[in-house]
Amino acid sequence: SSCFKIELTDEQKEFQATARKFAVEEIIPVAAQYDKTGEYPVPLIKRAWELGLMNSHIPESCGGLGLGSFEACLITEELAYGCTGVQTAIEANSLGQMPVIIAGNEHQQKKYLGRMTEEPMMCAYCVTEPGAGSDVAARTNPDPKAPASKAFTGFIVEADSPGIQIGRKEMNMGQRCSDTRGIVFEDVRVPKENVLIAEGAGFKIAMGAFDKTRPPVAAGAVGLAKRALDEATRYALERKTFGKPIVEHQAVSFLLAEMAMKVELARMAYQRAAWEVDAGRRNTYYASIAKAFAGDIANQVAADAVQIFGGNGFNTEYPVEKLMRDAKIYQV
Q1: pLDDT for residue 152 is more than 70
Q2: Which residues, 6+ apart, have CB-to-CB distance to 192 below 8 Å?
Q3: Cβ atoms of residues 204 and 118 within 8 Å
């Protein structure tokens, strides 16, 4: 008998359906307006929290659902189908929570993760210098007095702690409502009990958090690509040239077929990476592949969708130009 199985469980299908319904009925109708204004989607974040679509990683011992990476990715793909800007805003909590989930002690988890399940609160994940991205080792001003063993330390701080300065909102090319800001720590005092594991353990914690959160990033890219494919397919069936729908022109139908293949393969890549996490294995290899591949696919499929829309694809009255802008961050 074979142990390889890709059929979703009833619970997984239920979470997927709930997220899909929320995306179609509540996110898509307002996504263009949020993209235009760049406003933080507070009502949608609160609604996602009410539906149980946020904080899925939080352990049951802290009041959470304790879902695995695979289930979280299913939810993420559906939310991203609606709008990756909104999905990124919602998913930010998972990134902020992950260091506490993988490295926090029982007291830290119950105090900070437990609060996230009691009301729709947001948390953030700050990693080293501006512009460093996930290159945690990139620093411009290391303290020469700090011992090498204490170079990187993970810790938890309250957002209203004295010395924390929240920067201005960056108006990005895409995913504009997701709220990107710089955070400055100036003489911030961190309670000893808020240090994760011990001084000097920060690098390993950061890498572990990235490994576990790369599959959802890939899932978000797949959700965007699937939306682009669906929009292009719908348009190709409705738009007529030379007396017939453009989907009946071989060049268009071949392009749609290639887009569909790319979406399916990218989905399998993130599901494999998520499965490795849930199996308790290090997933750096598969997570890196999934994130890079799905990011490229999102950009390719979104660009192809714009091509199928022709001149209308360049028009903000149609949805695909937004998808093309939103996709770019996955390659940056």
Answers
A1: yes
A2: none
A3: no
Give yes or no for a contact between 215 and 95, defined as CB atoms under 8 angstroms apart. Answer: no
What are the contacts of 255-261 at 24+ separation with CB within 8 A? Answer: 255/304, 255/307, 255/308, 256/229, 256/232, 256/308, 258/304, 259/225, 259/228, 259/229, 259/232, 259/300, 259/301, 259/304, 259/305, 260/229
Q: Calculate mean pLDDT across residues 73-101.
A: 96
Q: Residue 113 has which token pair?
A: 């993760």
Give the whole-angstrom CA distance, residue 326 versus residue 172.
Answer: 9
Structural domain boundaries of the chain? Answer: 202-331
Tell whether the torsion through CA atoms of 34, 179, 221 and 12 is positive or negative. Answer: negative
Cα 77–Cα 31–Cα 14 angle in degrees, nearest 5: 35
pTM, entire model: 0.91
Q: Which of 209, 198, 203, 185 is nearest to 137 (CA)?
A: 203
Percent of the chain with pLDDT over 90: 81
* pLDDT more than 70, % of the chain: 91
Across 204-243, b (16+ Cβ under 10 Å) vs e yields ebbebbbbbbbbbbbbbbbbbbbbbbebbbebbeeeeeee
What pLDDT score does 142 carry? 61
Give the amino acid at 318. Y
Residue 2: per-residue pLDDT: 47
Was domain 202-331 assigned CATH 2.60.200.20? no
Does the structure show a pLDDT above 80 at 136? no
- pLDDT, average across residues 53-72: 93
> What is the model's pLDDT at position 180?
87
Cβ-based neighbour number of residue 191 at 10 Å: 11
